[in-house]
Amino acid sequence: MLINPSSPHSDDGWLDRNIVDPSLKSERPIVLETKQLHVYYGDNEAIHEGDLKFPEHRISALIGPSGSGKSTYLRSLNRMNDGIAQVTGEILYRGVDVNRPEIDVYEMRRRIGMVFQRPNPFSKSIYDNITFALKRRGITDKKKLDEIVETSLKQAAIWDEVKDKLKKSALALSGGQQQRLCIARALAVKPDILLLDEPASALDPVSTSKLEETLLKLKEDYTIIIVTHNMQQAARISDYTAFFNMGRALEYDETSRIFTSPKVQLTNNYVAGDFG
Fold first, then answer.
1. Strands 96-97 and 86-93: what pairing?
2. Which pLDDT score is estimated for 21?
3. Is the Cβ–Cβ distance between 146 and 178 less than 8 Å?
4. 223-227 and 193-197: which strand pairing?
5. Average pLDDT of 55-65?
6. Other beta carbons within 10 Å of 126
7. 3-state SS of 75-144?
8. What SS3 state is found at 206?
């Protein structure tokens, strides 16, 4: 369960909750929302005014200059800042505040998976990279593991490239292949949301294009939130875009509007390349 059964706040019906945000002009339910989110590194407030809502089965991009807080915000969504920073406010996953202390963080991270900036495959075979977390959760049936490995690698659009070398080291793959393997590894535990922190920053243009094609297909089944420094990438693949500056989400709207008629002058300056 997402909430520790011993908690007085346990709610067996939490999966049935849906929230719709009319301001986003989306008929999709809101799967993740932050309210009054603040992140502090000691006395330094890195995030303030972080109120955003993310529609289901859509790609939302977080853009902004270096140090604007977009990666800090993203890492807060599945509590990757625990032990590093103090995070206050609500992080509502389908109506449940996963920022409460009694939340089972490991179960929550299974539902809200994350792929980091640089590919970080385990020093194991391709097969073992995908099955590692599954085996730790007690899944040992080889047929079932084989099925999950194939399905996950196909979803990440890398199956055809690695199906004949599953027992070979994942470290022998190219950077782009490693990144798609890391996505497959995250998908293997069947998350609901996928967080990606600049996943293409270390990739060449061909690998970046393959990654973007993969993400566009994945949004049919997953909600995706991506931090990117590449505005063209945000324009190509995202449905919604949030512009961050100095720890604030200054503007959040449909991507087409952010890039053609933003309401905030700083957003306009940034997407026009006239910033700083």
1. antiparallel
2. 38
3. no
4. parallel
5. 96
6. 28
7. HHCCCCCCCCCEEEEEEEECCEECCCCCECHHHHHHHEEEECCCCCCCCCEHHHHHHHHHHHCCCCCHHH
8. helix
242 to 87, 167, 195, 269: CA distances (angstroms): 20, 41, 14, 14
Q: Which tokens is 55 given?
A: 């529609």
pTM of the predicted model as reported, rounded to 2 decimal places: 0.88
5 by DSSP, 3-state: which?
Answer: coil
* Residue 219, H or E segment: none
Report the SS3 class of residue 202.
coil
Enumerate residues 6+ apart whose C-beta is below 8 A from 141: none
Read off the pLDDT band of 24 (50, 70, 90).
low
Sheet holding 44-55, edge to edge: 44-55, 30-41, 86-93, 96-97
- The structure tokens listed for 196 are 């990606």
Cα(67)–Cα(112) distance, rounded to whole angstroms? 24
Model confidence at 202, in pLDDT bands (50, 70, 90)? confident
Cα distance between residue 235 and residue 221, in whole Å: 21
DSSP 137-177: TT---HHHHHHHHHHHHHHTT-HHHHTT-TTSBGGGS-HHH
When computed from its CA atoms, the radius of gyration of the chain, rounded to whole angstroms, is: 19
> What confidence tier does 93 reach under pLDDT thresholds 50, 70, 90?
very high
pLDDT tens for each residue of 140-156: 999 999 999 999 999 99
